[in-house]
Amino acid sequence: MNSTAPRIAPQLGWKVDDSAQLYQVDAWGSGYFGINAAGNVVVRPDQQPGREIDLLEVVEGLKARDLTAPVVIRFSDILAHRLKCLNDAFAQAIAENDYQNRYAAVFPIKVNQQRLVVEGVYRAGAPFGFGLEAGSKPELLVVLAMTEDTPDRLIICNGFKDDSYIETVILAAKLGRRIVPVVENFAELGLILKHAEKYGVRPQIGVRVKLAAEGAGRWRESAGEKSKFGLFINEILEVVGVLREHGMLDCLKLVHCHTGSQLQDIRRVKEAVTELAHVYAELKLMGAGLEYLDIGGGLGVDYDGSRTNFESSMNYTLNEYAGDVVYRIASVCNARRIPHPQIISESGRAIAAHHSVLVFNVLGASALDQFRVAGRLEDDSRDGGEVPQPVRDLYDAYRSVSERRLVECWHDALQAREQALQMFNLGYLNLEARGLAERLYWATCARIRDLCRRLESVPEELEGLETVLSDIYFCNFSVFQSLPDSWAIGQLFPIMPIHRLAERPGRNAVLADITCDSDGKIDRFVSLRETKRTLEVHELRAGEDYYLAAFLVGAYQETLGDLHNLFGDTHVVHIRLLEEGGWWIEETVKGDTALQVLGYMEYDTDELYPRLARDCERAVRDNRLTLPESQRLKRFYEAELQGYAYLEPDNES
Fold this sequence. Notes:
Layout: H1 16-22, H2 25-29, E1 33-35, E2 41-43, E3 53-54, H3 55-64, E4 71-75, H4 76-96, E5 103-108, H5 115-124, E6 131-134, H6 137-146, E7 155-157, H7 163-175, E8 179-183, H8 186-199, E9 205-209, H9 233-245, E10 252-257, H10 266-285, E11 292-294, H11 318-336, E12 342-345, H12 348-352, E13 356-366, H13 377-380, H14 389-400, H15 406-425, H16 431-452, H17 465-468, E14 471-475, H18 479-482, H19 484-488, E15 495-497, E16 507-512, E17 521-522, E18 535-537, E19 547-550, H20 557-560, E20 571-577, E21 583-589, H21 594-600, H22 605-621, H23 627-641
Parallel strand pairs: 4-20, 5-6, 5-12, 6-7, 7-8, 8-9, 9-10, 10-11, 11-12, 14-16
Antiparallel strand pairs: 1-2, 2-3, 4-13, 13-14, 13-19, 15-19, 16-17, 16-18, 20-21
Helix pairs in contact: 4-5, 4-11, 7-8, 10-11, 14-15, 14-16, 15-16, 22-23
């Protein structure tokens, strides 16, 4: 059990509902996240208000256990609830459409290959008979071991396969696994037939169809006729012919397609499922022993909450998705008078995204509106003497700012600043005068911005001023390790403070990580309208931690992360909700130490400390270091090798 986080008195004129609306928590949170009366983000694992976990309370509880930010917090109950929602949506659609078969999901472990996540999905999927999908040999080895006591749960094998991969699948079938290798290229069929004959197995075989229906969104080119996945119709007809020749057409059990990833448009789903259903029906009428129709992945996640045809959103609900899939498959099968197949989906993103939250602390900030001037040369200049004309023009622009002259003063300040920089580069302006010019320019910009905030309509030329004057909040995490999709493909993730939400945020900021890379920043944030270029944040308080969190990060981010600047895996904890209220830690995985990440890069970690120790002894011998200084440096070095790769709070001592 953990102590309750301290309540914060609401700020006059600002309520937690205002923060909920500002950060659009209800839109992207899907009922899993909210804000309590104390102004802290809460997690509702089964979407039930009242059954919730205070996120700040969890972070402070972890800190007391020496698990400091950054930390990935996984909520195992959300993972289980996502599986239940998926099952319930298809169960409802099956009942409404009088569908004469069942539905089962298989979790593609490439989405999040962490053992605790895969085990959690498999355990929570047991009541529904959900299975697993493997896309490589290492993934296959994991899946085979994990299904030791549940051989009846489906295993789908996607990806390109070599001889040993196929042989393992055939032997797994002989072992009793319900395993289906999906033929991705024609050569794989020959390997299946070879090993099936060798071991006397009649395997269940699947084929992936290269659909004509195109994908949508960021991964639109991963589907359609130019995709890397699947067989053309002519190739599938060849598969049928070969299987018929071998007397194994009844072994063709599954038809599969790849509709894309993060499909934001329901029309693409409908088109792909309809086409796949017709292919299934035709093959079934040709004598194939088909039983499964695998619609692949593609079920989206509404990252920005806008419920639109935007690449980081989706214009449909889970129930609508399930209803359209079931209805269209049923319609085609009814028209062709063939039995309804069991429907399989590989909706990994929709299963895993919501259950993980990345929490990180802010280390400091840089602000451009920090510069102050008195507005009089005699007060702002050390000698109070003459200054060049561009500096005097900046004084005039600063003093002339008013609601009626905003654009004019903006133009004057821009021109005067440019002239001042030209004079400096030609040697006609000294460093002190240049510094004064910069202070005047930014102070003028801040005055113009402050007046713009009072206007109902901001002049077009000044619309970007908020972004220009935004702060930089330096955050204790690595974009490349923990949010690689944000950097690589511009994926939007909901980001917001997890506390102080009873206060009006007074700053706008972009977020910079602690890597030495200019791309290590986040400057696009979710909004129901246009993507925001800054995030509303609170003023930092001396001596107080300020925490932000990125939500919906459970799909792909951990497995795609890299070791840029040698920032390794963060701490990870699995949190469960107690029935009587509160929370407990189910599992803890400590983040990488410096020693571990150096080992990943093939440094001889056994020699690192001895090398420094020898150098310290030579320095003591030569009187370059005192003995206490040498000991302090060695203790620091040894402690840091064993310490967290990220920045940690100062030692209390």
